[in-house]
Amino acid sequence: MNKKDLKTIISHYGKNKQILKAIEEMTELQKELCKSVISDDNNNIDNITEEMADVEVMLNQLKIIFENHQEVKKVINTKIERTKKRVFDEYYKKTIQDYNKEKKFYKKKNIERK
Ligand SMILES: [Mg+2]
């Protein structure tokens, strides 16, 4: 995405209008995602694609408006690392729980475990 083009768009419409436009685009994406889940199909995949593109364009404009591109990048990395840790912890916890359940089952049935 060309930063210069986005700056031209922002200076033409103004920062506040583009912030409102970002909100509008996020709402449109929300609507399409809700439709997809409610109807339990992907009949609106073209609309979802279009709205995702709109939101991405607007997010890039917001990073220019708020001058926080690097900060957003850092926060994204931190959040992904935190979620990765959470996924690992939950997986590990589930594995331990499954192991203990199985152990209990064999003990209750008085079956020798292999
Ligand atoms: Mg749109």
Task: Summarize this structure as a short list of keywords or feature phrases.
114 residues; mainly alpha; 0% strand; binds magnesium ion
Describe this structure in words.
The chain has two domains: 1-67; 69-114. The chain is 84% helix and 0% strand. It has four helices and no strands. Magnesium ion (MG) is lined by residues 25, 28, 51, 54.
Principal-axis shape = elongated
Bound molecules: magnesium ion
Which runs of at least 5 residues are low in confidence (pLDDT < 50)? none
How much is the average pLDDT?
94
Our Rg estimate from Cα atoms comes to 23 Å
H-E string: HHHH
The percent range for strand residues is under 5%
Report how far apart the termini are.
Answer: 58 Å
Number of helices: 4
Number of strands: 0
Question: Could you give a short account of the major beta sheet?
Answer: none
Characterize this entry briefly.
By secondary structure, the chain is mostly helical. 84% of the residues lie in helices and 0% in strands. The protein folds into two domains: 1-67; 69-114.
